[in-house]
Here is the input.
Amino acid sequence: MMDATQSAFRALADPTRRNILALLTRQDMTIAQVSDRFDMTRAAVKKHLTVLSDGGLITVEARGRERINRLNPAGLAPVLSWFEIYDRFWDDRLSDLKTAIERDLQ
Here is the structure.
């Protein structure tokens, strides 16, 4: 079983899924509405939506026969946490570089 970070990165690894997420930042959409935006079958879009849902990046709500796909911004939290490690790394390195430059200029 994948942890939340792995699932989120797996979902983000595919450019089509990233494009679907971009669409869902503007509005909630049914599978049919998402399918209309891509040159692929509805079944293929459904697979992408399933990976996004498994990754916690979208939620899916059943309304009658339709399934409404909605961006879940909280699903990006594991990804952001992972990147914070490297953010701190570069902050430390850039701070050291700034100190070295300032010392050399004196």
